[in-house]
Batch of 4 targets.
Target 1
Amino acid sequence: MAKNENKDQKNSIETTRVDENSKNQQLENFREDPNEQYLTTDQGVRISRTDDSLKAGSRGPTLMEDFHFREKMTHLDHESIPERVVHARGSGAHGYFQVYESMADLTKAKFLQDPSQKTPVFVRFSTVVGSRGSADTVRDVRGFATKFYTQEGNYDLVGNNIPVFFIQDAIKFPDLVHAIKPQPDKEMPQASAAHDTFWDFASLMPETAHMLMWVLSDRAIPRSFRMMEGFGVHTFRLVNAQGEGSFVKFHWKPLLGVHSLVWDEAQKLAGKDPDWLRRDLWEAIETGEYPEFELGIQMIPEGDEHAFAFDILDATKLIPEELVPVRRIGKMTLNRNPDNFFAETEQVAFHPGNVVPGIDFTNDPLLQGRLFSYVDTQINRFHSSNFTEVPINRPVVPVHNQQGAGFMRQTINKGKVNYFPNSLGGGYPKMASEQEGGYVHYTEKVEGHKIRERSKSFKDHFSQATLFWKSMSAGEKKRIVQALHFELGKVESKEVRIRMVNEILNHISYELATMVAQGIGVDAPSIAVGSKVKDVAGTIKDKAVHALSGGKTVEDSPALSIDRNNKSNSIKSRKVAILADNGFSNIEVMSVKQALQTQGAKVSLVSMFKGKIKSTEGEELEVDKSHITTGSIMFDAIFIPGGKESVEKLKKQGEALHVINEAYKHGKPIGAINEGIELLMASSIGQAITIASAEEKRKPVVEKGIVTLQNSQDFTAFNEAFIQAIAQHRHIVVREERAMVPA
Ligand code: HDD
């Protein structure tokens, strides 16, 4: 008895310690380090020669008894496992989460109580549609899945970088995935929604309208995984120790702000560096630029379940931040790259059903269906339900149950008892009371008739799509129209294009429908429809007005816009190229480079060839990248130092001129000093900018995100202006005439 009491105390949730290193220490038991070791077989036998198979004579047949050959070949033959049916391409990182203050009033989840505690996490970012080898920068939703290894077991927040979903009921998920994936007859196109079947489906499914707007916006081409928001999408439930529940929406807010690529750049990157986002994440962590995200929550008291003009169980709706503000409750820092892609990033298995006490589900029919799908698909990937024993998936707390056996079982369960109740095993493993950390489901009252029907409160499909459109900046609107010109422009069926314009887009906005029609060979709609909408109670009102009953309304939501609300003014980890050749000004290069690096930017010297180039002052610098291996698309900003000889050479290099044209076209900041300005004027943007007038010379001049300095050594002022231009990220809107610039 006394022995068991001791054991109980040791096993108590209160005394279970988890810290930042708990997961790493656990993984250490499984790591293999080949350093200074002999090559062996799987059986541990040392190998004397691995370059030749065992043969009967050096030109004779290979012998069956060559165990080393057989084993080596067998492993290769079985190295692949089925890729995820969606979210196949992903990138993972380890880190930790820390809550800012106790959330005990809302939830009893232990990892959300103590600000001094660091809970280990593993995050996997992904694209959705493409296969494992597809490009990172395609237009797509990004998955943002987080596994918290808490002292009460694993909690998975399996979200996306878009706060709503295409469909309302999980039973439509197979149709959605079939429509958006490559067509079944010809397996085309790869990693793209721009084909007939997807837009056919979308045009017939008005509930996709809101999510479509997000997917067509800049959100679907993030500049970096570190610069995008994450969302839990569904309304979940928090439950405190008193058993009181409240509704919650989860958000991840990146501390670097939200930033995107432009479409032309995204497409080119898909060819020049298909690993763009993966590389960016990896390199940031390797160089200590740890990605940081704050966890935010929108709280909805249980009594307000029906207070909105939409249904909070409908995953195609968000709750405008202007109605319910996001409270930032903690921070996640990603600080360690995986050791092995397959063992960790590929084998990690997330599941929205992995919850801990204090976090519970709601009746959102999309969420309910997800609760079935994830384990089901993981059994397809791993051919066994024992995938939970794979190191990356193990909780950092002990697992005791009677679910033994099955393919590849690792755990050796002791004793003859594998059932419950039992007396022969002392009644163990035993049940935990709520106080002992036992999971108790929220006692929500549910009643209803069995019925295959959609709730009436899910009926309004367009109001929030309109709110999104109305909340965009002018530039963002323009890019949504261009995205539709691309996506629908690839649709061969005119019938589908017409239906998209009339049945979907015109219900979102007449302005949008008209602008899109023009680019895709379809007549503009003759009348505006859908500017009014019926709410759940049958009242007719203006669309895109979101109200808490009796409360304030939202007709414009800047929180939805990247341009208007979500940028940061830091240049930390921004990539800047310095274009130079022999005969550059070293003093200019050094001054600008040092100023940028002090602010956390990454600076690379780009020239025609690798090797060294010599400055006018005689210093030699190592070239970081040659033109053939890089391009403007791999940088956030460009700088051209003076130095007559260098600039004269660059003027004759199509590659250098192309970098400037393209960076200009993509809205990127460009800096130039003294003769460097001549290179700008020699490029196609010479027609678009005027550069400093005579009296403005000697101090930096900023025009359309181009920062120049002439006849002056005042680099400090130049650097300040250039850094400010980079902090604004893009200068697209002020470069309207860029259509003239080839790139
Ligand atoms: Fe899902 C993977 C996110 C709806 C079925 N989903 C998957 C991943 C993410 C999401 C991030 C990749 C996890 C990883 O990195 O391994 N899924 C979402 C979000 C949704 C959503 C935010 C809407 C709110 N998903 C959804 C529905 C279903 C699924 C409605 C089916 C009923 N999702 C799956 C899946 C996947 C998956 C088929 C494929 C690979 C996997 O689960 O492990 O089960």
Target 2
Amino acid sequence: TGTDHDLDELLGIAAAAAREAGAMLVAKRPPRPEVVDTKSSPTDVVTALDREAEELIRARIAAARPHDSILGEEGGSSPGRTGVRWVVDPIDGTVNFLYGLPEWAVSVAAEVDGEAVVGVVDVAPRGEVFTAVRGRGAWLGGERLRCNTGVPLARALIATGFGYGAGRREIQSEVLREVLPRVRDIRRGGSAAVDLCSVASGRVDGYFERGPQRWDVAAGGLIAEEAGARVGGLRGRPANPDMTVCAAPELFAELHDLLVPLDPERDA
Ligand code: 2AM
Ligand code: CA
Ligand code: CA
Ligand code: CA
């Protein structure tokens, strides 16, 4: 898929929009950003800059390709008629952004027929831009990325996230209780997009999280896949919004099998 569209054009638009938004966020972030809204739980916060960054990205995409569809975390869905849909998370890791921790990113993906073909994750506070084009590999600047392979679960460093939402903490701690003794260690970075890029670049061996949205994983998931990782849900389901797992294929299988019995098919 994607052959009818100019992927270089889509990558150029995604990278320019993500970088402009990332630079704006770094420049405008006040010492103590104000929480202007909360969503699913008091932990699930929004700042004015989440909205401003998304508006900037939407404006740049619409100027370049006015007939594409756009889905963004803060602005929702706008229809199109080209078969291209942009998936935007203006700040992934808003809690880190709020506190001044340097682990948040601008995530922009382009999908054709529902499949990500271009992904850009701009980890602006670290000055790192991860990119991928379907079939052409994943890159950190000029460096081609390969995920770690041959790591058994017991020696795997595993990133995870605890997605927000009322009533989810109890289940998350039950899952962690089972996983923690079976892996090398756990990292909880706070940005799903950055976690997926960390798998791609071998900074962790794998990642799992229950409940990410499409905008959390569209770009980072393609970057991880293009670095050789497998990205998916449990029992062959898609990577979101249920449990999302990412690792080299052998580790994916081990992590998957550990998580299946721990995954209560509950909504929380
Ligand atoms: P955000 O910073 O864009 O809100 C934290 O574990 C990760 O989960 C972040 O990537 C965060 O994205 C995301 N997240 C936020 N709210 C969520 C929700 N209600 N459900 C699932 N994931 C969420
Ligand atoms: Ca959010
Ligand atoms: Ca997000
Ligand atoms: Ca966000």
Target 3
Amino acid sequence: GSAVALRSVTHRYSSRGRHIDALHTLDLSISAGEFVVVVGPSGCGKSTLLGLIAGFHRPTTGTVQVDGAPVVGPGPDRGVVFQQPRLFPWLSVLGNVEFGLRGRGISRADRRARALAKLDQVGLADVAGLRPYELSGGMQQRAAIARALAPDPGVLLMDEPFAALDALTRDRMQEELRALWRDTGRTVLFVTHSIDEAVYLGTRIIVFSARPGRVVLDEASDIPAQGR
Ligand code: ADP
Ligand code: ADP
């Protein structure tokens, strides 16, 4: 089966008597281990798609499934990273990563060990005790990625995660993300408005049209794999 499956999904927003279908009868199957990049202009429905898979909202019609089960809300099987790190400012970097592991029957010591391992994976072990505001933007986003990965989600959902970073940091983090994907075999759905980023990262690229919610292209990336 598919890691992620949408069947005839329409998502309609209504405000002040106006309706817009941010997604329109969308069918989409993503297999385990794919690195899918969804690209398209602002307002084309990318965030809506990601939000439906994350469980932030329900489709108006149609079904959304992850690993064969209907999505009914956010869950530890789906890690989410946004454009802004959204770290809790009152917690240390380590505390932020541990947070995602609370309430799941994991002992305090295990939570700490797992969070430290994730921070090590993204190169932040040395700053685990700092508060988010003591870190650069790139480091904060690394911490957000570590937090999303802590529960070991099968699916990683990323909504323009590098858009707010300077170009050099972004390049480095793109490479790190691809190495992480290669090493862990996770399913990644990555949303961006940058064609360059889509082509560089994705094994499969889905292009949405400016008219919201329509897929105009869905292709395996045939760019020579640089270290894939
Ligand atoms: P993208 O992520 O590609 O920029 P979105 O999924 O955020 O696109 O939005 C798709 C369309 O739905 C846009 O036209 C946007 O204006 C509209 N939209 C998004 N959220 C809402 C909302 N809460 N209420 C009304 N319209 C919305
Ligand atoms: P990034 O590339 O993540 O945006 P910077 O370019 O600002 O980070 O910093 C480069 C390196 O300097 C980081 O990878 C980190 O090792 C170190 N560094 C930056 N800020 C701090 C800090 N507040 N505490 C400890 N080390 C830091």
Target 4
Amino acid sequence: GKERSPGEYRLYRPSTVHLPAHEMIALERDLHRALNEDGLRLMLQPIVTADSQPGARVTLAGVEALVRIEHPERGVLSPDTFIPVAEASGLILPLGAWVMEQGLAWLADATRQGLDTQTIAFNVSAREIHAGGLVERLAAGLERHDLAAQRIILEVTENVMLEHDSVVRETFDALRALGCKLAIDDFGTGFSSLSYLQHLPFDIVKIDRCFVGEVHTAPRQAALVAAMIEMGHALGLSVTVEGIELHEQASRCLASGADHLQGYYFCRPLPAAEALARFITL
Ligand code: C2E
Ligand code: MG
Ligand code: MG
Ligand code: MG
């Protein structure tokens, strides 16, 4: 790979720089094609609330928008592969705009059809914040689809905040002034999650799924998750735990006070077209 300064290295996901150049070029071409030839797919995954009693009712709190590329030869490409390339190339801007427009349209449609979902969460990359115009685009989309800003959550990971410039702060303030909520995603996996919680106006913390795998069997992991939930609450935040695959993991997190859960145990991400029918029965 090319020489990069440490600062530049950390701005995007480290995986970008480990891809061979020819693969990055191929992915960038795939992205271009997906954007121009209807190759992007919007997936939605429910975020639920539940009671800790066994057999308790699960209710839909909201959904998270997750994008895929449907590649003509290689099938479905995962965002973990192409988002870093999208970020490095700048294609994250049209991609993010596409996801947001599709997600808002889905929410408006789902609401008209009677689905009782409150929120939709969008993942936002550092590059989208630094490019400017995100708040205006979202405001225009909300107006066009006649949706309240209170139903929008923007999820950011820590690499958004690595640059301590005023753009991030101003964007966050503008998003909150509009009425949106802010979530810190993949909490606990970065270098300094705690310091960001201290300085930036988050509403929600999403505990990364790497803390959940053994939460029901390993006391140390259970203690860590419980402490993170307690800390989130002490700061007045709502806490979501990601990556719930088992009933036991769900009960353990609920017993520790988690407000929302997300994971394959409840539902995998579904294509937008199927999501409505499935979520209505959740
Ligand atoms: P994320 O925002 O942390 O999203 C959660 C990821 O965990 C999703 O992976 C989801 O499919 C997966 N997941 C959910 N439940 C479970 C579970 O029970 N077990 C396991 N093993 N995984 C689970 P996905 O869809 O592959 O997305 C990966 C990442 O790509 C996302 O992580 C997000 O950071 C990024 N991403 C996805 N869509 C977008 C987008 O539209 N824009 C941007 N900027 N990033 C996106
Ligand atoms: Mg997310
Ligand atoms: Mg996450
Ligand atoms: Mg993630």
